[in-house]
Amino acid sequence: MKWKIACIQMDIAFGQPDINFQVAEQWMEKAAMSKPDIVILPELWSTGYDLTRLNEIADEEAEKTIECLKDQAKKHQFHIIGGSVAKKASKGIYNNMIIINKHGNLIKQYDKLHLFQLMDEHHFLQPGEKDG
Q: How far apart are CA 100 and CA 108, in angstroms?
């Protein structure tokens, strides 16, 4: 089986999730015209690497992101690998990848396990607890 994949490379508004959600939705709308099977968003697309403000701007349990991606997947009938977003959880903030199928079902979430120390991610983000 051959898969048609659309990778979204977008200008991310640093620390401005509301703008980034609008831009991502516009890009997914454009991507839908080529009828991809899978759309892939970039890492930390909703906040950028505004690590010092993540406590203020991270998505609580990634709820807004999940709902947005579910809506887009159902609307356009493509699977989405939601890059990753800053997810605020009870134990801290995680760099969380979200996968939604074309029916709008949440398939998997994955918290980045190996944080990139050269970017000081380990000072602002919690590592995931296991691979896979």
A: 7
